[in-house]
Design a protein that fits this description.
Elements (H helix, E strand, L loop, with lengths): L14 E7 L10 E4 L3 E15 L6 E18 L4 H7 L3 E7 L4 E8 L4 E3 L13 E8 L12 E4 L4 E4 L8 E9 L2 E7 L6 E9 L7 E13 L14 E7 L9 E4 L5
Antiparallel strand pairs: 1-2, 1-13, 3-4, 4-15, 5-12, 6-11, 7-10, 8-11, 9-10, 13-14, 14-15, 14-16
Length: about 260
Amino acid sequence: MAIQHVQNQYLIPRGRVYFDPYDANEELTGEIPLGNCPGITVSISSEKSEHYSSEAGLREKDGAWVIQVDRTGSITCDNFSPKNAALWLSGTHEAKTQTAVAVTGEVRSVIPGRQYQLGATSANPLGVRNVTGVTVKDTTEVTTYVAGADYNVDLETGRVQILEAGSISAGDVKFGYTPVAAAFESVKSGAVAELQGALRVVSSNAAGGNRDWYLPKVTLAPEGDLALIAEGTDVVQMTFGLEVLKPANAEAIYVDGRPVVA
């Protein structure tokens, strides 16, 4: 009988990625689907303690022991959802509401030729958007300035441009407007430099058998550049540095194939 050779298993990996954040007590809170992640890598490096014999003139290595293993990697994600943006910013994601309450006396100091964001405060630096009924008056409310002649307004973004050729002088004016009642998502950065939790990859490979990966304790740290404006047509990608840790009562990495009915 001829020698039977090993059948090679070639792999083109694809799959869905889930991150399960820890809470303050290092308890898992539920898996967040990260969406499309075109690249996940794990790199393993080890450190050895080496011993050399001094029993002869030629110094020869007679022992080597692995004393340290480091598992690192990266995750590249191009699903730029608000929740993923909050993860990359190590921040928070929340749902906000804007109520249709008329504002009649928002005093702002203006300079002709410049633009101003309605509703911008220290508590709400982005201000309000989608507004109606914008007015600009002097502080005594005797003079009502004329849209198109003294100022321009973008209702969708809630921005007012004071025209240089208009009759508004440098100084204080009063803005009036009514925000549209609506809900929207909000993200802001935080002070936490890295996230800790579990990582799961559910495979759906283009080639090769599907094997699911589970890393019960990892840290994610945002790294690299995030394009806020770009000239090209490539979609925005977020990169997370990955460090794989060993939990107290588990292994660092698990990889399982899929059970098949015989």
